[in-house]
Amino acid sequence: MDLFVTKRLQRLAGEDGSGGPGLKRHLGPFGLIALGIGMIVGAGLFSLTGIAAAENAGPAVTLSFLVAALGCAFAGMCYSELATMIPVAGSAYTYAYATLGEIVAWIIGWDLVLEYAVGASAVAVSWSRYALSLLHDLGIDFPARLAAGPFETVTLAGGGAVAGSVNLPAIFVIVALSLLLMRGIRESSGVNNAIVIVKLAIVAIFIAVGVSYIDPRNYTPFIPANAGAFGVYGWSGVLRGAGVIFFAYIGFDAVSTAAQETKDPQRTLPIGILGSLAVCTVLYIAFALVLTGMVNYAAMKGDAAPVATAIDRTPYPWLQLLIKFGIVCGFTSVILVALLGQSRIAFSMAEDGLLPRFFARIHPRWRTPWCANLAFMVFGGLLAGFVPISLLAHMTSIGTLLAFVIVCAGVLALRRTRPDLPRPYRTPFVPLVPILGILTCATMMYSLGPENWWRLIVWLAIGLAIYFGYGRARSRARRHAAAE
Fold first, then answer.
1. Of 1, 10, 2, 15, which Cα lies nearest the Cα of 349?
2. What is the distance between the alpha carbons of residues 122 and 347, in angstroms, rounded to a whole number?
3. Which domain holds residue 256?
4. Does residue 348 sit within a domain?
5. Dihedral (Cα; 268, 272, 273, 277), 10-degree rounding
6. Does any domain span residue 483?
7. Which of 2, 152, 183, 346 has the fewest CB atoms within 10 Å of its CB?
């Protein structure tokens, strides 16, 4: 069936931009690791750790981080193999196109474009709140009605409640970072590197200070007894906790979206993918151990800011201000890398004819897909400025888990159909590692619950309508296959 037409690897090799005015190659190993950390270490570390501990795993949330990291490690090795074989923009979308066929590629590309775009908008709304809170602590106040959308209620200084007008700070950060990405990958990477250094330093300070205030009694019981329902403590709680905090790991896959802007991608992409994952896993486990040691998991239930509660148990009020600054930095880099990732996937889909050619236009001087950045700047800015976070926050990690399953399946498919192809990086213990990656990620998808599955199904139904109404008739791969 032509729905499962694949892109020839030889043609993909000719799209890597090495012989023409394509995307500009600037990123090296450090830049790629920083890119991954910039997306992975966001404010989710400060919020999701407490939520998963209080509602699902207790102190064993550290095991939840290990389970999630294990699934990421399996997927990361599979990503590395395909990224070195197919070093072009597009990430899981491109890999699926080369291995499993066009319809599978469209499903995952559409899913990731929306997830990155809506996720960036949701994070921008949270960025607005933390940034204004930080400014307030510094004695600077911003008009409340201009920091909330029309469907949200804000409390004025006099105590009255009114509807908001527009979330200007959220729009500002989307626009500013989109313009930075249009300007060039060198400038964007430099800003991201600086932010990553700052927020890693802040996380390290919290861990170093907090160790002295751990109460060992808070670790007992380490795995609380199951409360009678799946996912509420016990080993099922550890598994559900892994699905919840998996969102905090999303990001290493964004490294592969920048493959076409990477120097010596066959060598540096595995370093960027697996290196950023390793650094973040160590940080996450240390952070979770310190947080659950400082504050009992039961006391975190209903606490919107468990990290702030932990800091209050130290004699360092300045640490609260520092953590807020770290959260703002974390949000900023997450938005930056999300906007980078979705624009590069849209660029690849447009190059293949599945989206309008507008998304594939490259700026003649900046060598960036500036039209894609511009389109998502407008779309993301409108979402961030006018849609309440309660709706935007419905975005979960289920779509990314689906991408990981497809990438692992792609490695299995390509090992079977093209065992002769050169592989600069080879996933070890095939087929065991890809199968374990599929099983781990699919299990976490199952643990997220039916409501998240329904959102995924609705999103994909909309995408399939667009594919059959527009993309299928304009597919370059189908035209090439027909001509051959």
1. 15
2. 22
3. 29-476
4. yes
5. 150
6. no
7. 2
Q: Can you give the C-alpha Rg of the chain in angstroms?
A: 22
Pairing of strands 153-155, 161-163: antiparallel
Report the alpha-carbon distance of residue 50 to residue 459 in Å, rounded.
Answer: 29
| pTM, rounded to two decimals | 0.76
Q: Between 81 and 387, name the one with better pLDDT.
A: 81
We report the CATH number of the domain holding residue 75 as: 1.20.1740.10
pLDDT value at position 296? 92
**Alpha helices (runs of H) in 352-388, residue ranges in sequence order:** 370-386
- Does 387 map to a domain? yes
pLDDT tens per residue across span 142-168: 887 887 778 777 666 666 667 778 889
In a domain, 305, yes or no: yes
For the stretch 371-397, what's the b/e string if a residue is b when 16 or more beta carbons lie within 10 angstroms of its beta carbon? bbbbbbbebbbebbbbbbbeebeebbb
224 pLDDT higher than 90: yes
Residue 22, Ramachandran bin (φ over 0: left; ψ between -120 and 50: alpha; else beta): beta
Residue-wise pLDDT tens digits, 433-469: 999 999 988 887 887 767 778 878 888 899 899 999 9
What is the pLDDT averaged over residues 215-233?
90
Token look-up 């407008």 returns 378
Report the alpha-carbon distance of residue 402 to residue 137 in Å, rounded: 41
In three-state secondary structure terms, 154 is strand
Q: Which alpha helices (DSSP H) does 211-264 contain, by range?
A: 234-245, 252-257
Q: How many domains does the chain have?
A: 1
Tokens 């070195």 identify what position? 84
